[in-house]
Amino acid sequence: MMPDVFPISPSDPSKPGQRNVPAAKVEDELTYTRILVPIDFSEHSKKSTSYAIRFASRYNAILQLLHVFVLPDYAVARNEYEPTGGSLKTQGDVAEQAARENLAAIEDQLRHRGIKVEAYLRVGCPFDEIVQMANHLNVDLIIIGSHGRTGLTHLLLGSTAERVVEHAQCPVLVVKQP
């Protein structure tokens, strides 16, 4: 028969070698002041942001929203002409502007709800930019959504959340898609 690996209580006197040490309060140990929330404007991203709002409210933390703009996702094309100069805009420029507007709208909504919030837009590889921003901003927690891809899609695209968990220097809470 295997001995108990985990005692019933931290101060169980029937277990040799254990000291009577008072248990620490979890709230004293966990303090979050800066929470990074990577968002992609999807419905699932809204769910991750909801979790983050609850954490920010509970700990009076600053929510730091981050959208990572991936340039290879946007091909350069002659899709719009500016009326004044006739210069070309790329699809990337249009998408970047839309991302800035979406971020600003979310930031305003949260600020009106009394949440301390900052929004950032970065260009690059999502997991790398998330980890770099977490380090740069000295965040205490990253709350990120996982799209739950499996099979060939997961193999080809990988998981941004998985890579963030692997490379981040702070705790990461992954909000799974139902």
Q: Which class do the helix and strand fractions yield?
A: alpha/beta
Unreliable sequence segments: 1-24, 74-79, 84-88, 153-157
The CATH topology corresponds to Rossmann fold
Please state the second-level CATH architecture: 3-Layer(aba) Sandwich
Strand content: 15-25%
What is the topology, as strand order, of the major beta sheet? Answer: 5-2-1-6-7
* CATH homologous superfamily annotation: HUPs
Shape: globular
The mean pLDDT is 77
Main beta sheet: 5 strands, parallel
Helix-strand sequence = HEHEEEHEHEHHE
| Helix proportion | 25-40%
Q: What is the number of independent domains?
A: 1
From the N-terminal CA to the C-terminal CA, the straight-line distance is 40 Å
According to DSSP, the number of beta strands is 7
Query: Count of helical segments?
Result: 6
What integer value in Å does the Rg equal?
22 Å
The CATH class name reads Alpha Beta
Observed structural traits:
two-stranded antiparallel sheet, 5-stranded parallel sheet, globular, disordered N terminus, alpha/beta, Rossmann fold, 7 strands, 6 helices, 178 residues
Question: What this model shows, in words?
Answer:
There is one protein chain. The protein is an alpha/beta fold and 178 residues long. The chain is built from 6 helices and 7 strands. The protein has a single domain (30-176), classed as Rossmann fold, CATH 3.40.50.620. Helix content is 39%, strand content 20%. The strands form 2 sheets. A 5-stranded parallel beta sheet has the order 5-2-1-6-7, with helices on both faces. It has a two-stranded antiparallel ribbon with strand order 3-4. Helix 4 (126-137) runs parallel beside helix 6. The longest helix has 22 residues, at 91-112.
